[in-house]
Amino acid sequence: MSEHEFTIRRLNHTDLPRVIAIERRAFPSPWSLGMFVLELSKPSGVCLTAMRDGEMLGYVICARYDEAYHVMNIAVDPDHRRRGVARALLDAVLDAAGHQTPYTLEVRVSNAGAIALYESFGFRSVGTRRRYYADNGEDALIMWRADGEPWEA
């Protein structure tokens, strides 16, 4: 699947049943419906979805905090992973919110594929959050991106 085989558009409340279905398939500790409703209600956030022929392939939730954006959640339906969907979603966030704006995120230390993706966008590790994930107590890697330059903590 290439980026030309799907479209990126703004996520809206009517998409939430499909978001929840992907969320439950993608993560051992899925977000609740209320968490998604809250993030979609923030006017400064960037919430996008990748669609193909009416099927949701993935989504990203990015919230604005002070002077930085926080990539809160990015998920691709397990049946559509490793096909450029997450890359296209992250690229669309940077286009929408600005390439020169600082970004942060947390990612499981064991998620090598996601870490490599984020590094390819200029995110750099600045530390860890111990026992961040409730399902298994795994640490989260804290990553920052500042205009494609390595972030200096």
- Secondary-structure content class: alpha+beta
* Approximate strand percentage: 25-35%
The total count of helices amounts to: 4
Radius of gyration: 15 Å
Write down the overall geometry: globular
Work out the number of β strands: 8
Task: Describe, in plain words, how this protein is organized in 3D.
The protein is of the alpha+beta class. It folds into 2 domains: 1-98, Aminopeptidase; 104-153, no CATH class. Helices cover 27% and strands 35% of the residues. The chain has 4 helices and 8 strands. Strands 1, 2, 3, 4, 5, 6, 7 and 8 form an 8-stranded mixed beta sheet that branches. Strand 4, helix 3 and strand 5 form a beta-alpha-beta unit. The mean pLDDT is 91.
What structural keywords apply?
single chain; 153 residues; alpha+beta; Aminopeptidase; 2 domains; eight-stranded mixed beta sheet; 4 helices; 8 strands; 27% helix
Question: Which helices and strands, and how do they pair?
Answer:
Layout: E1 7-10, H1 16-26, H2 33-40, E2 46-52, E3 55-65, E4 68-76, H3 85-97, E5 102-108, H4 112-120, E6 124-129, E7 140-146, E8 149-150
Parallel strand pairs: 4-5
Antiparallel strand pairs: 1-2, 2-3, 3-4, 5-7, 6-7, 7-8
